[in-house]
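Hi Prof. W.,

I finally got the Glucose 1-dehydrogenase prediction working! I wasn't sure whether to trim anything, so I left the full sequence exactly as given:
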Amino acid sequence: MSDRLKGKVAIITGGVAGIGLGVAECYVREGAKVVLTANHNVDGGHAAVAKFGDDVSLFVQQDVANEDDWKKVIDATIAKFGKLDILVNNAGIGGVNGALEDLSLEDWQKVIDINLTANFLGEKAAINAMKKTNDAKGSIVNVSSVAGLVGLPMAPAYSASKGGSRMLTHATALSLASRGIDIRVNSVHPGWIDTAIIPEAAREQIVKTIPVGHMGEPHDIGEICVYLGSDESKFANGAEFTVDGGQRA
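And this is what came out:
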């Protein structure tokens, strides 16, 4: 541990498995206190708190697309740890893939709600909490995707949601900076990360598309999020950090 996040309090949505858990592990290692949220994986949330210790971690069940649930998470964070320094908007879904003309409005809206509207709600809640509890200082990290940089032909809703998250990041960062508010907003764009959602049958073919010859690990995203949450990144604002093994080089 090098205490790069010592004294900081972070909310990590979707923080109990996959990339989110990787971020949480890096944050706790670096001295942060973490509030982890998930909607369905409640057992994973309790397991994460048992692993990290309830002195430095808290689990709150949350539907990230529900504004009342954001109030619940913020209230629990402040009640437990007294302030908010960092928000990592990580929760997301892939949704239904296929041709756009075959996609139902319901399937489209679900992806937009969880991947984009939830980022808006999270930013809004975090900014207000940082103003009230942290002298209007902090860092917001939106976990987008390489699909927010280059469209995926059979994932129109996912690409649109992640592209929207990217532009929301830019707009919010500029808005805050232009008003002299010291809350930075940046986006992270993972490529193929080795998590349970990767189909086993597709792994070999996926790896062939990655110039470095292997998929990333959740900690690869966690380390970037450590940098963006720490004071080391004080001049990084409204920026995009692509972590994809060279696919977009």
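The chain has one domain: 9-243. Does that look reasonable to you?

Thanks,
D.
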